[in-house]
Amino acid sequence: MLLLLLGIIFLHLAALVLLFVSTIVSSNIYYTLTHHHYRSVTDSPPPLFFFSLAEWIQAVQAVMILSIIFSCLSLFLFFCQLFTLQKGGRFFLTGTFQILASLFVMSGAIIYTVMSPEWVLGTYSFGYSYILAWVAFPLALISGLIYVILRKRE
Amino acid sequence: PEQSQAIVIYTGWERHALVGSDVRLSCSFFSWRWTSEDVSFSWTYRPDGSRDTISIFHYTRGVPYLDNKGPFKDRLEFVGNPGRRDGSILIKNLDLSDNGTFTCDAKNPPDIVGRPSSVRLLVFENPIQAGVITGAIIGVVLGLLVLIVVIYYLMRFLVARRVFSLSVKHGKKKKEGSQQRQGPVPPADPSKVKAATSEKKKQESRKDKK
User: Fold this and answer.
1) How does it sit in the bilayer (chain A) (predicted)?
2) What is the CATH classification number for the domain harbouring B45?
3) Domain that includes residue B54, residue range
4) What is the pLDDT of residue B195?
C-alpha cells in the first residue's frame, strides 16, 4: 500500500521535474533559434527587439509554464484529497489537473514541431528540451489516468 | 588634365528600422582636393535575394534627382549637403520589401577613383513586446480556473442558503405541528450542508409520497 503511494508520487514528481527542465532549458533554445536564424542572414548580432518577433514562441512558453502550474496544483490536490476523501472515493480532481497539464505539454510540443521548420534554416537538430517535453507528456498523462482510476483505501 | 587621386567613400555598415518608420542613409567621402562644383553622388539599390541593381538617386551639378518611377517613388528625400561632402538620403515609410543593399558612389572630379560603399538595410516587423502573449495566455487560463472555482463555491453557498431558508420554514411549520423536527441547519460546513441537503430532500420526497 505504501509502496503504491510512493510509486504514484514518484511518477508524478518525475513528470514534474521533466517539465521544469524542459521549460527552463527551452528558454535558452528560443534565443538560439532566433539568433541562429538571424546569424545566417547577417553577421552582426541581432537587435534586441528581434527576439520577441515570433508569437508562436511566446505561446509555447505560456503553455509550458501552464503545464508546470497545473502539475504542481495536481500534486497539492493529491495530498489534500488523500486526507479528505472518503473511503472508496476517486481522485478525480487530482487526475483532471494532471491530465490538463499533460495536454498543455502536448500542445506546446505540437506547436513547436509545426512552427519551427519555418524559422530554422538548414539543418538544426531539436534540442533535448524538446525531447524531454515529448517524454513528459505521456508520463503526465499516465499519472493523471492512474489518479482517475485509483480508489482510496484506508 | 589634372591627375586624379583616390577618393574614399563612407557609408554606414548596416541600418535597422521598423516597418513604417523613416531611415537616413548617410554617405560621405574623403578626398585631398577641395570639393568640386561637379561633385556627384549616386545611390543604387539591390533588393535582398536579387541580382539586379537599380539607380534611385543621383546628384550632379547642384541638382538632386530622385527616383520617381521605381520602388522608392515619392518616398525619397535628399537630406545631404554636398558642399559639406554629405550625400545622405532619407527613405520614408519603410516596408519589408525595402530590405536590401544600398550603394553610394561619390565623385569629386578629378578624384574619381574610388570604391563605392554599401550599407545594408534591415526592416523589421513591429514586434510584440517579449512576453505579452505569454502573460496573456497564462493569465486567461488561470483566470478561468479561478472563475470556475468561485462559481462552484458560489453555487454551493446559494444551495446552502436555500436549504437554510427551507429548513427554517420547515422548522416553523413543525413547531406548529408535530414534535419531531430538526433544528435550523447552521450555515457552517459545506460538506455537512451537502449531507443535510440530501437528507432534507429525502425527507421531503418521503413526505410527498405520503
Assistant:
1) Multi-pass membrane protein
2) 2.60.40.10
3) 8-125
4) 46
ipTM: 0.78
- Tell me, yes or no, whether B202 lies in a domain: no
Partner residue opposite A52 with nearest CB, options B16, B128, B135: B128
Residues 6+ apart with CB under 8 A from B115: B8, B9
DSSP conformation class of A146:
H
| pLDDT score for A101 | 95
Residue A44 with chain B: CB contacts under 8 Å: 13-14
Q: Which domain holds residue A133?
A: 2-34+49-149
Write the pLDDT tens digit of every residue in A1-32.
788 889 999 999 999 999 998 888 776 555 55
Contacts of B120 in chain A (CB under 8 A): 42
Q: Indicate if B102 and B35 belong to the same structural domain.
A: yes
Nearest CA in chain B to A97: B145
User: Is residue A53 a contact partner of residue B123, using CB atoms and an 8 Å limit?
Assistant: no
Please count the structural domains in chain A.
Answer: 1
- Cβ–Cβ below 8 Å for A53 and B122: no
The CATH number given to whatever domain includes residue A141 is 1.20.140
Q: What's the mean pLDDT in B122-140?
A: 80
The CA distance from A68 to the nearest CA of chain B, in Å, is 11
> Which among B101, B125, B149 is the end of a domain?
B125
Question: Contacts of residue B125 in chain A, CB cutoff 8 Å?
Answer: 53
Note whether residue B184 is domain-resident.
no
B124 contacts A50 by C-beta, under 8 angstroms: yes
> Residue A56 has which C-alpha cell?
508562436
The label of the residue with cell 520602388 reads B71
Instruction: Note whether B142 contacts A49, CB cutoff 8 Å.
Output: no
Contact B138/A50, CB-based, under 8 Å? no
Helix pair angle (B132-176, A55-84), 10° resolution: 30
Phi, psi of B137, deg, nearest 5:
-65, -45
Residue that terminates a domain, selected from B125, B146, B181: B125
Does A39 reside within a domain?
no
Total number of domains constituting chain B? 2
Span A72-79, average pLDDT: 93
